[in-house]
Specification:
The protein has 396 residues and is of the alpha/beta class. It contains 14 helices and 15 strands. It has helices at residues 2-19, 23-31, 53-66, 104-115, 131-140, 142-149, 178-196, 212-220, 276-288, 310-327, 336-345, 355-367, 372-378, 381-386, and strands at 39-48, 78-83, 85-88, 91-97, 119-125, 202-203, 225-228, 231-232, 235-236, 242-243, 247-248, 260-263, 266-267, 293-298, 332-333. Strands 1, 2, 5, 13, 14 and 15 form a six-stranded parallel sheet that branches. The chain has a three-stranded parallel sheet with strand order 6-7-12. The longest helix is centred in the middle third of the chain and has 19 residues, at 178-196. The chain is globular. The structure holds zinc ion. Zinc ion binds next to strand 1.
């Protein structure tokens, strides 16, 4: 009897020793919303001011999306993160906006997709770089000067300079002046509002480098949803890599002001060899954990000018939706703005309220926590808790 008591006490101590160091993560995973349905959103970046080939690509994507419907009759939504301007030749700081006549076919195709409810515009940036940094870099980097002589695909700029919210004219990059950041955010939000006829609700920071100052300025300008990779990079390091992580975040967590975060850390880039099956595996993982599946993609997959194979990418997109609907009859399509609103409202139509279901999903989430999951399995804690999980499949 005494031995049993001792063993019991030792087990309780072991449980406490495992729980205590992970308590914050365990609580955060409990607070993170559990989605009631499999959710699939393909997030496509870098559209807007640029090559005219985008017009045909956006029209073809619109037609592809409109062919599919979820159980509610809703077609898939592709979010398009927009670049609002390209600079004038040899003038990094003077902008040609998306509504100038030269970009008219792109703007028309974009608006047609929005009108059909399958393209959802999001703010990416006035430009995909910080103009003064580009001007400085052009003085010493011939490649940048050549780009600036005939600005077109921002994808062709050196990667560090594609970050808008840090000065990467030298590496490691330097922070921007707060007042200049606030003025630039006000300018891009005003431009987006004028162009699209409605203020932006969702923003995707270019290259996922941004700062608390940028975020506060976006929130003050009315942005409600910030798409993130789950952590905030604030700079580029000496080798040009995104660096300076000062915050991590989960879906639905509040950011600055009224804004909330979404996490996008899965990919569907046919150019990089990602197949529909690759994307479906991500949907399966996210669904298992009660999370929305946001797939990152870029316009370059759909543009020959940017090295893409439009026919192959469109066929892959089409197959992805066909397979998703076949494998997940309850999958739902929506935009990030709608998802953000559902999370903000804790809307019971989208967010699970049933504690038993939430507990079951939480167990799956904590099992994947590095170190905790393994240790908790080893001492029998997870197997014990799993006895109380819902035995039925929650999805699809
Ligand atoms: Zn981008």
């Amino acid at each position: 009897m005494q031995l049993l008591t001792l063993l019991g006490v030792a087990w309780c101590l072991a449980v406490a020793a495992i729980l205590l160091p992970h308590r914050r993560a365990l609580i955060a995973l409990w607070r993170e919303p559990v989605m009631r349905h499999p959710l699939l959103i393909v997030e496509s970046d870098d559209w807007g001011a640029g090559p005219l080939e985008q017009a045909a690509a956006l029209t073809a994507i619109t037609d592809c999306l409109a062919r599919h419907h979820d159980s509610r009759g809703r077609s898939p939504v592709m979010t398009v993160a927009l670049i609002l301007a390209l600079p004038e030749a040899n003038a990094a700081t003077r902008a040609r906006l998306l509504d100038s006549p030269e970009f008219a076919p792109i703007f028309t195709a974009l608006q047609a997709g929005i009108a059909r409810g399958v393209l959802a515009p999001q703010l990416h940036g006035m430009t995909h770089f910080w103009p003064p940094a580009l001007a400085r870099a052009a003085l010493v980097q011939p490649q940048v000067a050549a780009w600036l002589a005939a600005p077109d695909l921002t994808e062709q700029l050196p990667s560090p300079l594609q970050s808008r919210w840090t000065d990467a004219s030298e590496l490691p990059s330097l922070p921007l002046d707060d007042a200049l950041v606030r003025a630039a955010v006000a300018e891009e939000v005003a431009a987006y509002t004028r162009l699209l006829g409605t203020p932006p609700e969702v923003v995707v920071p270019p290259t996922f480098v941004w700062t608390a100052t940028v975020e506060a300025a976006w929130a003050a300008a009315g942005l409600r949803v910030l798409v993130t990779p789950g952590r905030r990079f604030t700079s580029r390091d000496g080798a040009g890599r995104p660096a300076g992580i000062d915050k991590t975040m989960r879906n639905g967590e509040p950011g600055e002001g009224e804004a909330i975060y979404l996490v996008r850390d899965d990919y569907f880039e046919p150019l990089l060899g990602h197949t529909p099956e690759h994307a479906l595996a991500a949907l399966a993982r996210k669904t298992e954990l009660g999370r929305p599946c946001l797939l990152e993609t870029h316009r370059n997959n759909f543009l020959t000018a940017a090295g893409g194979d439009p026919d192959q990418s469109l066929a892959a997109l089409d197959r992805l939706y066909r397979r998703a609907l076949a494998d997940y009859p309850t999958v739902r399509f929506l935009s990030c703005a709608e998802l953000g609103q559902a999370l903000y409202d804790n809307d019971p139509a989208w967010v699970e309220r049933d504690r038993h279901r939430r507990f079951t999903i939480w167990l799956r989430r904590v099992a994947g926590l590095p170190r905790f999951g393994k240790a908790a399995r080893l001492i029998g804690l997870l197997p014990l808790l799993n006895l109380f999980a819902r035995p039925d499949r929650l999805h699809p």
